[in-house]
């Protein structure tokens, strides 16, 4: 994963976001980590409940002198069926140690929705059906 992240780090650091950290600058103990920040609520048509959407924020320590920092959002894999924002902890820690602010978010799962229930859940999540030719980018 090191090569992949090194390329991402340099690509994400524009001319305004100097210095670009490829090697860790902060230790894990120096990071500011805020867990379970509520960023929204979403109704699930699968289990017919409201869900609280949470995110964890990882940032360089308080001694970071930069007035602004590059930020990334980490969304875990799992095809909207499984997973947790905690899956991003290792990557979020590694990026924050290099000077990035990282938000790792929970999102609503579709569960075992099939057929009409899956279509209804997708519509409530995205505002309409999602297809390769549907004009979504």
Automatic annotation (TrEMBL):
Q: Does the keyword NAD apply?
A: no
Q: What is this protein called?
A: Carboxylesterase type B domain-containing protein
Which residue intervals define the domain Carboxylesterase type B in the entry? 50-109
Signal sequence residues: 1-17
InterPro entries registered for this protein in UniProt? AB_hydrolase_fold (IPR029058), CarbesteraseB (IPR002018)
Name the source's superkingdom.
Answer: Eukaryota
Q: Name one Pfam family in it.
A: COesterase
The record, for Gene3D superfamilies, names: alpha/beta hydrolase (3.40.50.1820)
Keywords in alphabetical order: Signal
